[in-house]
Structure formats: C-alpha cells, structure tokens
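Progress against Task 2.4 (sequence-to-structure conversion) is shown through the following example record, which the project officer requested during the mid-term review.
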Amino acid sequence: MAFLMKCCTLIVNVLCLPLHLIEAVGLYKIYKRFFPICLYRCSISYNKKMHDKKKELFQSISDFNKPGGQQLTILEIGCGTGTNFQFYPPGSKVICTDPNPHFQKYLEKGMAENEQLTYEQFLVSSGEDMGSVEGGSVDVVVCTLVLCSVNNIPQTLREVHRMLRPGGALFFMEHVVADPSTWTYFIQHVLQPAWYYFGDGCELIRDTWKHLEAAGFSELNLRHIQAPLVFLVKPHIVGYAVK
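Structure tokens generated for the chain above:
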C-alpha cells in the first residue's frame, strides 16, 4: 500500500509540474488575489455545516475573561472573512491577523454584520511572526483552519504562547490527516501536491495534534472528531489549550 501511495503521489506531482513552475517564477501570487473569493464562498458552507460544533467550542471563551471583568481581548490568526465573529462574546475586543491583505474587503463585511464586537486592528502578518503584538497582551487566541497552512506550526504556537497572558487560552478547530489504516489517508497523500496550490498552501496530511501536545501548554483539551464534510477533510481536532 505504501509503495502504491508513493507511485500515485509521484504521478500527481508530475501532473502538477506546470503549477510548480508557476510558483517558482512567482506567478502564484496572482492566485492570492482571487483566493479570498473562493474562501468566502467555502466559508459560508463550512459555517453552516459546523455551526453547532463551533458554538459548542466557543461557548467557553467567556471563561477566560480578565480578572475584574475588563474587556475580553481576542486575537484571531488567519481571520479570513471573519466567519468566527458571530461566536465571540458581545463586547469583546478583536485583533484580526492574516498574511493575505486581500481578505480585508470581506473582513470588513464580517465586521459590519457583527457590531456587538469592537475591532481594534487588522494586521497583515504570518502566524510565525506577530512581533507587533505585545507579549502577554491577549486573553484568547483563535485559530481555525489555519495550522494546516502555516509554514511552521511549532513557531506559530510559540508566538501564541508569547502573546497570551498567563491563564489565557488558544481555541482551535483544524482538519488533520486521517488514520493510516484508511483509504482517506491514502487519497489525502496522493492528492496533496495539487491540493497545496488550490488551497493556498493548505496541507491535508498534518498531524497537528502532536504539535499542540508538545507546545508546553499547562492544560490541553483536545478531541478528534469526524466533521460533516467531504471525506478529505472529515478528520478534525477541536478544543482549547491554556497557557
């Protein structure tokens, strides 16, 4: 099975040679202008199917309010089109970050639809480098469908740990690689070379939970679930980690 998977993956890699070339010469950046349109449409469908699971996950955010009832500060990494805003506690202050500046148009639409929140700023930055955010300054970091595409998961989690105040929490919902005994695992690996380009760097084959377990949080609440989605992204992890 492993040999067959490698052969099939090689074939897909060969078929993707034009895409590899486009990226090598820098033309792939053009797709980043159109990717927000695709993600906006996909996000609407994802939110409908995952609404109950998101609601269940984010209902615990209020538990991480600052002592004394001060305004809750939430930083969302890879905020995209702002589909998580509806789940945040009213009155929260939100810092939005995304490496793709072309999301801002759709982000502003999400802000307008969720006036119960206060939007502090939009930072164009990668998850691995958010030095403009002061250490220990946020109560909650949110990361949904982001760790599948960052270049360096451990470094991103170190940045999360740095920005969180003591006792603050990272809330996450991520698709991950399937069990190695399944056909989903096989197909995820075979299609990964093509998926990378159409998903703007997204990887189907990451065992993200292992990085969370090794990130040094004082408490990790993590569940593996099967999401009501297309089989390639059914395997998910959801939960939160406390600094």
